[in-house]
Give the backbone structure.
Amino acid sequence: MDLAWWQESIFYQIFLRSFKDSNNDGIGDINGLISKLGYIKDLGIDAVYITPFFPSPYFDSGFDVSDFFDVDKYVGTMSDFDNLVIQTHELGMKIVIDIPINHTAVNHEWFIKSSSSKDNEYSDFYIWKDEIPNNWLSNFGGSSWSYNDNRKQYYMHSFTKDIPDLNWRCEALVEKMLEVIRFYLDKKIDGIRLSCANLIIKDKDFRDNPKFPGTFINNYYKQRHIFDRNRPTSHRIIQRIRSLFDEYEDRVLIGDIVVTPPGEPELVASYYGVYKDEFHLAFDYTIANSKLTPKTIKTLSTRWIEACDTSWPAWVFSSHDHKRLVTKFNKDIKKTRLIQMFLLTQRGTPFLYYGEELGLEDSRIPKSRQRDLQRKKLFFFQNSRDGARGPMLWNIENYGGFSTNEPYLPMGNIKKCVENQETKDVSILKYTRKMIALRKIHTSLINGDFTYLDVNNDNIIAYIRTNEEESLLIVLNFTCKKRILKFSDIGLPFIAKNSIFSTNPYAKSPHFTNNEILLNGYEGAIYSIDI
Ligand code: GLC
Ligand code: CA
């Protein structure tokens, strides 16, 4: 089977302002990233994915755009961006950008014009109503309708009132956004993640969302979001965007599909399109939103795999919207290693969030330094998302080699910096690099079939990856106790030939016999087997 580059690649997500500061104003920027491309390449990464870099008032960390055709002065210039594309390609890597297509910042020229009168070129670019028409809520709290004094009407916002939703039922707006997308495709980027892609079309009759039963901390989750998002017409729009992509060679269209708890992998997978004419890859955050217990991982990943059917799954366990893995696991690095192994042995495309290779913890963010102001006490697992957006830590110098000035967000634990981990014999950085390298050597991890094994134990995850060349058995023990897994218990007559790798750097190899495997507490291991 011939796979596309984005099926074989490991992606690395970068929160641009937090990666590397080149001019020492405390804010990470494009030139800083360029100076660290070598590090990313050495990690074994194939594609770099960066969060929005457009000018922004930063109510929503850059996902609130004031001009899609420009670069925020804090992160660089358009020629820096063009250079980033060139430099990334020169190192043999791909580059993917993020375009928030559902909304803009209030200070975007389109909104200023749209709010100025009811009959100008831009008046229908946003969603306006004389009265609040329904019970829709903002994802960040309160009603999703706010009054505009100029136009003397209400406008709709899925997030805060600073970020009005665009009206994708307006053909002129659709054409403008296609122009934005084309502008970047012409700049030879390799792909785009469309942020909040399933929110773009709202019910044409503006019906009330029905109630969703259950106890949630957030009123937003007490509604079933069937009328303010996921309308059938959104698929038509995605198809149009995909057609535009198909005019170009080898580009990847990625969908950020927003789900509310308890998540819905089947809905996310519907955005691959019945005829595979929508997204190449869709992000399902259902697992990332869960507590990441072995049971939820197994159940939700099974649903995700089945929902994707013959489409290619994307795997994301941490991001700028989630707590970092180590923090989620109360600093337990062993569990983080297990998740890393799971991520990098899946069938599908893995997305690694910057700093996860260091086992970075969330930064502590005092109230006075919060940048993500929108989500106070509202988001599923956290108050502000800034913790997971802390500066990348490069060395033990002041400010972790991120900048020579105080970073705009507080740093995490400097001991975890790259330099420290490079000099140690054992480190999670070295482990991650090795796992990434293994995925390249063992082709079954990329193109092999995936089968879960029934091991009769909720705390052990076991599966097989197999292609014509090899079969690998991956077993992850999520308990603190030593476990023995008898092949006869799994009901399959295979024999381990070789133990390839363990999450435990001190594991003695081989730790298997002809009929059983021995795993230490929180150990995950990969074996080559005969089926
Ligand atoms: C996307 C982003 C998130 C942002 C939201 C609204 O889901 O991942 O960070 O807050 O869009 O713009
Ligand atoms: Ca800077």
